Amino acid sequence: MSMIRDLRAVVRPSRPSLRKDTGAYDTTRDPATPSAVVDCAVYRDGVRIETPGRLTPHEAMRLVRRDGGFVWIGLHEPTDAEFAGIASDFGLHPLAVEDAVQAHQRPKLERYDDSLFTVFKTIHYVEHDRLTANSEVVETGEVMCFTGRDFFITVRHGGQGSLRELRRRLQDEPELLAKGPSAVLHAIADHVVDGYIAVADAVQDDIDDVETEVFSPGRKGTPRGTDASRIYQLKREVLEFKRAVAPLLRPMQLLSERPMRLIDPDIQKYFRDVADHLARVQEQVLGFDELLNSILQANLAQASVAQNEDMRKITAWAAIIAVPTMVCGVYGMNFTYMPELHWRYSYPVIMGITVVICLGIHRTLKRNGWL
What we know:
The protein is α+β, with helices and mostly antiparallel strands. It contains 13 helices and 7 strands. The chain has helices spanning 2-5, 7-11, 57-67, 80-90, 94-102, 164-171, 174-177, 181-215, 228-245, 249-257, 265-268, 270-331, 346-367, and strands at 37-44, 47-48, 70-76, 108-111, 115-125, 138-148, 151-157. The protein has a 7-stranded mixed beta sheet, sandwiched between helices. A hairpin with a 2-residue loop joins β6 and β7 (151-157). The longest helix is centred in the last third of the chain and has 62 residues, at 270-331. The termini are far apart.
């Protein structure tokens, strides 16, 4: 299928580094769009149908039911009232509608009578100059997708993960859009997983920085360690990443392996590629968690070693100071009859002996690594 061979290139352009391009995410609703509906368009034979004015979802539905094609409606954080009319027009299941409006759902795939409901967690890497104990590393959003025979509805939550550019790319390839709503579902799944891969690369850089700092030489060539709270914060952010990636693997496998009447057979096999990339990201995230556990344990061990070294030094200096303390204590008792009290050389001799003993203890302790 020549029209499908370019699918990967269309929905997966060259991936920019998240560290260099912070403009890849839409942080605000379009000022020209006061309602939750960001875009509403009808596609027939893969081509967007131009209309004199802006279509409402109800008008788009009527146009599709009359002349064929499918409608793609994009919404951003709709309220119950804003979504109620759309849900009624397209016959969406009440449970799926409730999940789409309230958000905060696990990634999942649910099948209803005439539609599929898919939840994706979008991940955005938060730029920072240096990782701190309060740094936010990843920021999550959600994209809910309703896939029907003649409609595709996306409900987006969060300030990032805009699908506007993805829609433009698909519109430039009408032979792909001609495959219907399932082509759009694949494009969004691939777009989301591509985001995971880019974020995983950026998080890997943060972990490498922390690992280098933990094991970089400090005083006397020993590892200097780092603040454990920074490692713990990074672990929490990786856990958030893991919650987005892990539950999505099973839905992608179902879309790629189980025949579904709403998914075009030519498109279905490309979900295997998405599932494969998602499995790789999941393994990478699990590796992050294990590596951070090892780094945290190593850092705590270094802190314990440093405390032991400090205690040894304190003990060594206490042993040295104990000698003059004992001598001064003995000769500070002011007894009448004490040896050497009336001897002319008593003071220099006692002080000399004290210094020699202290120097001997210091040399011994230093040779043994206590100082």
